[in-house]
Design brief:
Elements lengths: L12 H16 L11 H10 L22 H4 L18 H9 L4 H10 L10 H9 L11 H14 L11 H20 L8 H11 L14 E4 L6 H13 L8 E5 L10 H15 L4 H30 L1 H40 L7 E6 L10 H16 L3 E6 L14 E4 L5 H10 L5 H11 L3 H14 L3 H7 L9 H18 L4 H7 L10 H8 L10 H12 L4 E3 L5 E3 L1 H13 L3 H15 L4 H13 L4 H5 L19 H11 L5 H6 L2 H17 L3 H7 L12 H11 L3 H17 L7 H23 L3 H18 L2 H12 L15 H11 L2 H4 L3 H11 L4 H11 L7 H15 L4 H12 L13 H11 L2 H8 L8 H10 L32
Parallel strand pairs: 1-4, 1-5, 2-3, 3-4
Antiparallel strand pairs: 6-7
Helix pairs in contact: 2-4, 5-6, 6-7, 7-8, 8-10, 9-10, 11-12, 11-13, 12-13, 13-14, 13-29, 13-33, 15-16, 15-17, 16-17, 17-19, 19-23, 20-22, 21-22, 21-24, 24-25, 27-29, 29-30, 29-31, 30-31, 31-32, 31-33, 32-33, 33-34, 34-35, 35-36, 35-38, 36-38, 36-39, 38-39, 38-44, 40-42, 40-44, 41-42, 41-43
């Protein structure tokens, strides 16, 4: 084939069909014959495409051709990924591209290829433009490029590095480092798109705080600085500007970690995720120590994964009344202790690497600044998240005393574990000069208009941005806009005036929407969290006075609405109002709810109630609460799983409604919500807080919270926590009296087995009776303990709660160390426990694996079948000690009866299977084989088969039982020291070391 211009036009359908048939036959014969040689013209088209990220094959031009001829469709069909007759743009396969680049004549040929196909470049800058600039002698300045630009530059450099003779390119590693740094700074640059206005004093205070002397290693001597203020004041923007001020210097002033808890991969309740993110950011700032930081980040993520598994285990224990009071609370304390220990050890190692890296960079005396953004969720009294974060910061400070922590959130909330008070920096409104500057930066060009708007609107940044937008849409009618705004009044009216101004500005923005129907939708639609074409038709149309007869009509309105800058995408065919605008307007609507918005929300309730699934139910609950329905009736509509769709919804609700959401979702609530909560919701929220305090050993602070809002409802969770707290404070006699009175109160509230309310009270009795039994046993009163456990078992049986009955029976069998309580009639408890284990279906047992393993381990000697049934239902725990325990038992059994060796080895070899790597050495011990079996996922099946081995010594069964009991909470673990003696005067920060 000639390499000159072709006279043929674009390939027709017949030619393409023949070509596809030829290609198909070639693929079917792949491997039977060598690939054909690449023709001259074929190679020329490859060269024309090799420096294009993607291209239109019909417009691909060869350097010697005057115009494109469309031959590339035929020539490059096999060479392109995802290419075909119907695709718009093609891209060369990686192998083909790299071979072609390496075969180019040199940089001149590469430049000619790019220049003759410049018409193929995308409108936005891409790797093609970056490559052409490099070939033209203009290598890029990497310093101030965005992450998008550096991604294109990296691709261009990777391509050109394959072309013979190309010189003067940036090093690939240098570009990668610049790209990593740009990605690190990108979230900060998004927050500071325009120069920050009017915050010189605040920036000066931040500089002073980070420059404070840190003292010596030890306890944290400089508390965190909390930047707080009303929403929209620019807290995050201020902190971002402060970090960029240092990061953009030629030599950065200090290392930092920016932790934004709105990112789904970061959780304030998992400090190990914070450690991982900080380590990854430090790896970017200190490339020489990249490997060390990355390894620590990976380790921290593994720790986070393990902690999630532990939390799920805790959650299961707290679901049952019979495991919550004893096993659950003990395990909660153990979890907090162990998690804190793991996290502090890990963060010290991060600090040690950082100190070495800073010394190598000449920054030995610089601070390390940690910024925690969107921190509101953790800011409540007694939060374990704050307690563990404080421990992490204290541990880091012990290695690097110049640690400084900046927090963007609400006003500071102390934590009992804090040893140094937080500092606070409240953001006030901007002064007139800064307000005018912000308006100008937002597009208000006329200085006089900006000044007059600033005078009327005030200094709230969000109000000023709304004013700028309203002024831009008003155009020449800006004077009318200013006249509609009220003149500023005294400070007493400041908040009212701000809301009024924001409402007027929003109405003016709506007034300039060209489409009347869209304008009628926009304001009432604010009350909806999501808008779809179907919602426009079924919910909004009638209240807004619109005729929307068909789905096509709804789609047209939806598409018009999507063009407004007041909304943003919320998924496929879904919109939501911008959060900043919606937040303002919902507050204003809350002051003056109109019948129109109420009708929209009533129709939303009907719309979502007719649909299934937790997401629809969550929206129904949201709108019922906004309509002011009774929380108790709304609670009846709750479904498992709705809580994840209601995250953040409490901001739109009254304190009374928000308290229900927080109580049902297991989330904490700020004091404002607690004060407005109904008694039942307040009790549940307070119970969560007290549980958290006890898990941290802060019994004194728990006791202080428990003095509030009495008397409690008869079946409140606070009764058990009150008794637990008294016992932690060394007041066991009072604790026993309190729990006995609570049992009577719950029993008087209704007999078990009747209505739902009575069922809740019966379940509360279970928890109280288990707690009473534990207190009695520890007080040397086994008869009382046995009596309480019998009553608990009876209640569980009457309720039909098989797992609760197992929990009560397990507690009975454990009296006096598991050998019976020494009172008449309890010798059959082991038998009843084993029988229940065998009779309950495996699918039910699987819901409480820790409880089931503990029960099976307890009764294995009397009921081996129960052990096998439990093993089949829940398997062995993931504890690292399982292979060791099983291995030791197998060795003892074989030593007792050597004839078992062959049978046991056959089972072991079968379970272990072939090695995962051919070069891996074979395991040298029984324990090694067991670990290999666990890696293959066959250890549970092996354990079940081992139970069938004729071992008359019972060692194998005992070993399986012992392995099952390794994750049994509250058993065979070192107990905490005794509780603190009762103080003569209550001190809120009295700390005990854990549950007895």
């Amino acid at each position: 084939m000639s390499t000159g211009p072709s006279d043929r036009g674009p390939a027709g359908p017949e030619a393409l069909r023949e070509l596809f048939a030829t290609r198909l036959r070639r693929e079917l014969r792949a491997g039977a014959e060598p690939p054909p040689d690449v023709s001259g013209r074929h190679r020329a088209y490859r060269e024309a495409a090799c420096l294009l990220g993607s291209f239109d094959p019909q417009r691909l031009r060869l350097p010697d051709d005057e115009r494109p001829h469309g031959d590339a469709i035929l020539e490059l069909l096999d060479d392109c990924a995802g290419g075909g007759a119907d695709t718009g743009r093609w891209s060369l396969k990686r192998r083909v591209r790299e071979e072609t680049l390496a075969g180019l004549a040199g940089p001149g040929a590469a430049r000619r290829l790019l220049e003759c196909n410049a018409h193929q470049f995308a409108d936005e800058p891409g790797p093609e433009q970056a490559a052409l600039a490099c070939l033209s002698g203009h290598p890029p300045d990497l310093g101030r490029k965005s992450a998008y630009e550096l991604t294109d530059i990296l691709q261009a450099v990777l391509w050109l590095s394959l072309v013979p003779g190309v010189t003067g390119l940036p090093e690939v590693d240098e570009v990668r480092r610049a790209l990593d740094r740009a990605r690190l700074l990108e979230p900060l640059r998004r927050l500071v798109r325009e120069p920050i206005q009017g915050r010189a004093a605040e920036l000066k205070e931040l500089r002073a705080y980070t420059g404070l002397s840190g003292g010596g290693p030890g306890s944290l001597s400089v508390g965190p600085l909390v930047v707080h203020g009303p929403g929209g004041m620019g807290k995050s923007t201020l902190l971002a500007a402060f970090l960029l001020e240092s990061a953009d210097r030629e030599t950065p002033g200090f290392p930092f970690a920016y932790i934004d808890f709105e990112r789904p991969s970061l959780s304030v309740h998992e400090p190990s995720t914070l450690i991982a993110e900080a380590a990854r950011q430090l790896a970017v700032q200190y490339p020489g120590d990249h490997a060390a930081f990355d390894a620590l980040a990976d380790e921290a993520q593994e720790v986070a994964g393990g902690e999630r598994e532990d939390l799920e285990r805790l959650s299961r224990l707290h679901r049952l009344s019979t495991t919550r009071a004893v096993l659950g609370r003990r395990s909660s304390y153990e979890y907090q202790v162990l998690a804190t220990e793991r996290e502090t050890v890990l963060v010290r190692r991060v600090a040690e690497v950082l100190v070495r890296a800073m010394a190598g960079a000449g920054q030995a005396d610089a601070p390390f600044v940690v910024v925690l953004d969107s921190f509101e969720e953790a800011q409540y009294r007694g939060s374990p998240a704050i307690g563990r974060l404080w421990a992490v910061f204290t541990a880091f400070h012990s290695v690097h005393p110049r640690l400084r922590v900046l927090i963007s959130g609400r006003a500071p909330v102390g934590h009992p574990a804090q040893t140094v008070a937080s500092r606070d920096l409240e953001l006030a409104e901007l002064d007139p000069e800064a307000s005018t500057g912000l308006l100008k930066s937002c597009g208000v060009a006329d200085p006089e208009v900006a000044r007059m708007l600033a005078d009327r609107v005030g200094g709230h940044p969000l109000s000023l941005k709304l004013a700028a937008r309203a002024a831009l849409v008003a155009g020449v009618a800006t004077g009318d806009l200013i006249d509609t705004l009220p003149a500023p009044r005294r400070r007493f009216f400041e908040r009212v005036d701000r809301m009024l101004v924001q409402g007027i500005l929003y109405d003016r923005i709506l007034h300039h929407i060209a489409d009347d129907e869209v304008r009628h939708l926009a304001h009432p639609g604010l009350v909806l969290r999501v808008i779809t074409p179907e919602i426009i038709k079924e919910v909004l149309a009638v209240p807004c006075g619109l005729s929307v007869e068909t789905p096509g009509d709804a789609r047209r309105l939806f598409d018009e609405l999507a063009r407004l800058d007041l909304v943003e995408p919320a998924g496929p065919s879904a919109l939501r109002h911008r959060p900043d605008v919606r937040c303002i307007m919902l507050r204003l609507l809350g002051q003056d709810r109109t019948e129109l918005t109420r009708e929209v929300e009533r129709r939303a309730v009907e719309f979502y109630a007719a649909r299934g699934g937790p997401e629809a139910r969550a929206e129904e609950i949201y709108h019922r609460l906004r309509l002011g329905e009774n929380p108790r009736s709304v609670e009846e509509r709750w479904l498992p799983g709705v809580e994840r769709f209601l995250t953040g919804a409490e901001r739109d609700l009254s304190p009374r409604a928000a308290a229900l959401l927080a109580a049902k979702s297991g989330r904490a609530a700020p004091e404002r919500v607690m004060e407005g909560a109904e008694q039942e919701d307040w009790e549940r929220l307070a119970a969560r807080e007290v549980e958290d305090l006890l898990a941290q050993g802060l019994a004194g602070d728990a006791a202080a919270r428990l003095t509030e809002r009495r008397p409690w409802t008869p079946c409140s969770p606070l009764h058990a926590l009150h008794a637990e707290t008294l016992d932690r404070l060394g007041r066991r006699a009072e604790a026993r009296e309190a729990v006995a009175a609570a049992v009577k109160g719950a029993r008087a509230a209704g007999p078990p087995g009747a209505a739902d309310r009575s069922r809740v009270c019966a379940e509360r009795q279970l928890e109280l009776l288990l707690l009473a039994a534990r207190l009695a046993q520890e007080d040397g009163d086994p008869a009382a303990a046995d009596r309480d456990l019998r009553r608990a078992e009876d209640i569980a049986v009457r309720l039909g709660h098989e797992l609760e009955a197992i929990g009560a029976l397990l507690a009975r069998t454990r009296l006096s160390g598991g050998g019976g309580s020494g009172v008449p009639g309890d010798e059959k408890a082991d038998g009843r426990l084993g029988r229940r284990l065998r009779e309950v279906p495996g699918a039910v047992l699987a819901g409480q694996p820790e409880l089931v393993r503990a029960a099976a381990s307890q009764v294995h000697a009397r009921d081996p079948q129960a052990l096998g049934h439990a093993l089949a239902a829940v398997g062995l725990p993931a504890d690292d000690g399982v292979p060791d325990v099983l291995g030791a038992a197998i060795r003892r059994a074989v030593a007792h009866r050597p004839g078992l060796l062959g049978t046991v080895m056959d089972l072991l070899v079968d379970a272990a299977g072939p090695a995962r790597r051919p070069d891996a050495p074979p395991p040298s011990s029984v324990t090694g084989i067991l670990r290999l079996a666990r890696g293959h996922g066959t250890l549970d099946a092996l354990a079940r088969r081992l139970l069938d081995v004729p071992d008359d010594s019972g060692e194998i069964a005992a070993g399986v039982a012992a392995a099952m009991g390794l994750d049994a909470p509250g058993r065979d673990r070192p107990g905490p020291p005794p509780p603190a003696p009762a103080p003569t005067t209550h001190t809120p920060t009295t700390r005990t070391t854990g549950p007895p």
